């Protein structure tokens, strides 16, 4: 089971926003920016998220409309935003492999799945931001790729593995994606609460790795349009 000692974010109102300044090129606490490769922090009462701009973003924070909270940036081909909940340090949403059995469960709505280059949720090694998921040394994720839900993994900077989960998602239909890293380092994936039609055996390589949950939004040629995140739940397993 999953513990109630977790972080639940509903993205139901505007956050506080500021420049994050992790790479030394911008001041901490300054005005949030859309410059490519720079970071911002967005703070809600129920949690905070650090973002990394992939390409210059005219829209670099949450946009609220009648459908909810859109986290997809300015919606340009080959650009996007990574949202990361554990980058700030050793908080409730930073975990240690084998020491912590953890999970991330995200509910989201993609307006146009044909434009989803990679819309992924999961865990990655806590390291400097990259412009592609494959740039990270280690990760385990579920990704929406043009409507197909894929398993994604990379181990110790080896060859990235993308495998069809057997799941799909349609335009403007809410889907719940979940990734669990168990105490024995095995990884489990769930789509709308069920195991995918095509199961895979993944294991996180290194005990004691510090990992962070993330949401990665990268647009393809068609552009995914708004990506509404309705719920983010992350914490320790029982």
Description:
The chain has strands spanning 2-9, 16-19, 39-44, 47-54, 63-65, 68-70, 80-84, 95-96, 102-110, 116-125, 139-145, 148-154, 161-168, 175-181, 186-191, 202-203, 210-219, 227-237. With 238 residues, it is mainly β. It has one domain (2-237): Jelly Rolls. Strands 2, 3, 4, 7, 8, 10, 11, 12, 13 and 17 form a ten-stranded antiparallel beta sheet that branches. The chain starts with a strand and ends with a strand.
Secondary-structure element string: EEEEEEEEEEEEEEEEEE
Q: For this entry, what is the oligomeric state of its chains?
A: single chain
Total separate domains: 1
Shape, per Cα inertia axes: globular
Helix content: under 10%
Based on DSSP secondary structure assignment, what is the total number of beta strands?
18
Rg computed from alpha carbons, rounded to a whole number of angstroms: 16 Å
Describe the protein's topology.
Elements: E1 2-9, E2 16-19, E3 39-44, E4 47-54, E5 63-65, E6 68-70, E7 80-84, E8 95-96, E9 102-110, E10 116-125, E11 139-145, E12 148-154, E13 161-168, E14 175-181, E15 186-191, E16 202-203, E17 210-219, E18 227-237
Antiparallel strand pairs: 1-18, 2-3, 3-4, 4-7, 5-6, 7-17, 8-17, 9-14, 9-18, 10-11, 10-17, 11-12, 12-13, 14-15, 15-16
In short:
The chain is mainly β. 0% of the residues lie in helices and 49% in strands. It has a single domain (2-237), classed as Jelly Rolls (Sandwich), CATH 2.60.120.560.
Key terms:
ten-stranded antiparallel sheet, six-stranded antiparallel sheet, 238 residues, mainly beta, Jelly Rolls, globular
């Amino acid at each position: 089971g999953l513990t109630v000692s977790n972080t639940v974010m509903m993205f139901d109102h505007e956050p506080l926003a500021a420049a994050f300044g992790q790479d030394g090129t911008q001041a901490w606490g300054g005005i949030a920016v859309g410059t490519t490769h720079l970071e911002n922090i967005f703070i809600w009462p129920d949690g905070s998220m650090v973002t990394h701009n992939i390409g210059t973003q005219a829209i670099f924070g949450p946009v609220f409309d009648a459908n909810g909270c859109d986290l997809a940036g300015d919606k340009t081909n080959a650009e996007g935003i990574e949202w990361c909940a554990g980058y700030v340090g050793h908080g409730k949403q930073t975990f240690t492999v084998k020491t912590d059995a953890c999970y991330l469960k995200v509910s989201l709505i993609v307006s146009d799945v044909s434009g989803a280059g990679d819309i992924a949720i999961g865990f990655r090694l806590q390291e400097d931001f990259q412009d592609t998921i494959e740039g990270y040394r280690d990760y385990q994720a579920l990704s929406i790729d043009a409507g197909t839900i894929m398993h994604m993994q990379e181990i110790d900077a080896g060859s990235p593995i993308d495998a069809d989960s057997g799941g799909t998602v349609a335009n403007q239909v809410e889907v719940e994606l979940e990734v669990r890293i168990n105490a024995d380092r095995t990884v489990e994936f769930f789509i709308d609460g069920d195991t995918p039609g095509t199961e895979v055996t993944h294991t996180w390589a290194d005990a004691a790795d510090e990992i962070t949950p993330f949401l990665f939004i990268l647009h393809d040629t068609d552009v995914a349009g708004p990506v509404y995140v309705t719920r983010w739940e992350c914490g320790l397993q029982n």
